[in-house]
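My current task is to audit a protein record that another person submitted. What it holds is a sequence and that sequence's fold in token form. Thanks in advance; the entry in question is below.
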Amino acid sequence: MNDQILYAAYGSNLNIAQMTVRCPNARMYGRTELENYELVFRGPPGNAIATVEPCKGKRVPILLWRISRQDEQAMDLFNGFPVLYRKDTMKFTANSRTVPALVYVMKPEHSPGQPSDYYYKALLEGYRDCGFDLAVLEEALARSQELARQMARSGDLEGRKK
């Protein structure tokens, strides 16, 4: 088991069909939540993708996957590590245990924005696959769109997270 780790999915890797293709050795470990974080979409308009950011009182649904080191390498490529995302280790409670898991977190220089319809539908399917509350996803979309509008009004065209 030393060659396997737990990976915390919160975005398109909640989509079981997609994850099966990306990481054929992955096995579902359990459902949990990332407390005091919120889901946000960041990136180019129309192509923003999910990340998690600290936010007191919020929670992000998480599906923990047990992945091989080979799967982790595939995830690194898929997630644009180390350019777009960094890798963090966070603790989660699942299956009556507290366990460390790998989490990809977007680097802060990307502005909030609108995801593509295709990407958002993949997330919706993943939320449904996992039985997660769709309101969390809908709130993340609305919040990201509002942040993007605020930045456009303020003239912050860079849109970088401060």
